[in-house]
Design brief:
341 residues, alpha/beta, Quinone Oxidoreductase, Chain A, domain 1, Rossmann fold, 2 domains, 7-stranded mixed sheet, 11 helices, 17 strands, 26% strand, binds zinc ion, zinc ion binding
């Protein structure tokens, strides 16, 4: 089978490898669609701090069950599935306290261990989730990013009736804002400096989509929410200057939630947290329940993913993918790799 391996930054090789053998508890999946993530782009550039080469990338996959292990129940050949791409130890303190997404020994498929840019992928059945027959493989590849969003909103607590600002209208920001709307936020504002992304956000039903070029975040918040300001600010942009604007724009007893992957340390004015009791929350991927909620919200059409995929490439054209992303920052949203027919 064909498999694409990143051997070092900017370098990939196309391998012809045997189809993986599966154990009694495993499922073999014929991959159909695999999305390219922001973290994949960091890996390509050699900027991802928490991985090492070589690695087969790909953690946003959808495919069809090709074979099931002898002890597997609940899956059969031909089922449409996606994969929760986290391997955790189950024994460390975070795992035992219900936070396996921050397991001390966490390994993510496609980052720390083999991923899905491959014709077939074997995974324990416990990592596999069934997709409804009505869901397309394109949508299936967007379950993982949507699970990042359901995880982020779960981390915010009960958001019913709240004012929410999402910074950054890329795929993750868009999905976080949509999940906030679907979860009962009073008003959800999304900001960006890219008009295409803002237009897509508008089409997805996000309440207010604001171009912040030449504007202060604080002013946008006052204009959109009035004196109540923002209860929750969710950073999906990962830009130092914007983060500091968010700190300044946070209100007493508000929450500042970091979803973005920062590549470098950020200096902040700590008294603005301490004196105003601003809660800063980090969010790292998702739990199983977030994955299932993502599938449910998509199945119920409460999340619109139809505008999120900007480009398709066949796996055989994989070498063209990252240069395309690098040279089209204004138009690229989610790039999806097609595998097989
Ligand atoms: Zn991802
Ligand atoms: Zn653990």
């Amino acid at each position: 089978m064909l498999q694409v391996k990143m051997t070092e930054a900017f370098k990939m090789s196309f391998l012809d490898t045997p189809i993986p053998d599966i154990g009694d508890d495993d499922v073999l999946i014929r991959m159909k669609r695999v999305g390219v993530c922001g973290s994949d782009i960091q890996i390509y550039h050699g900027k991802h701090k928490y991985m090492s080469f070589p690695v087969v990338q790909g953690h946003e996959g959808a495919g069809v069950v090709a074979k099931v292990g002898s002890k597997v129940t609940g899956f059969r050949e031909g089922d449409k599935v996606t994969v929760q791409p986290q391997v955790f130890c189950g024994e460390c303190a975070p795992c035992r306290s219900g936070h396996p997404n921050v397991c001390k020994n966490l390994r993510v498929y496609g980052v720390h261990t083999g991923g899905m840019f491959s014709e077939y992928f074997a995974a324990p059945a416990s990592k596999v989730l069934r997709l409804p027959e009505t869901m397309s493989f394109d949508e299936g590849s967007l379950v993982e990013p949507t699970a990042v969003a359901t995880g982020a909103i779960r981390r915010c607590g009960n958001i019913t009736g709240t004012n929410v600002v999402v910074l950054g209208a890329g795929t993750i920001g868009n999905l976080v804002a949509q999940v906030a709307v679907a979860s009962g936020a009073r008003k959800v504002v999304i900001t960006d400096i890219n008009p295409t992304r803002l237009a897509i956000a508008r089409d997805c039903g996000i309440h207010a989509c604001i171009d912040t070029r030449g504007r202060k975040l604080k002013d946008v918040i006052m204009e959109e929410f009035g004196e109540n300001e923002a209860d929750i600010i969710i950073d999906c942009a990962g830009v130092k200057a914007i983060f500091n604007e968010a700190v300044a724009a946070a209100r007493c007893s508000s929450k500042l939630v970091i979803v973005a992957n920062y590549k470098e340390p950020v200096e902040v004015e700590l008294p603005l947290f301490q004196r105003r009791e601003v809660d800063m929350l980090g969010i790292m991927m998702y739990l199983r329940e977030d994955f299932q909620r993502a599938i449910d919200l998509m199945t119920q059409k409460k999340i619109d993913t139809s505008r999120l995929i900007s480009d398709h490439f066949n796996i055989r054209q994989m070498e063209a993918v990252y240069p395309h992303i690098d040279t089209h920052p204004e138009s690229v949203m989610k790039v999806v790799i097609d595998i097989g027919e």
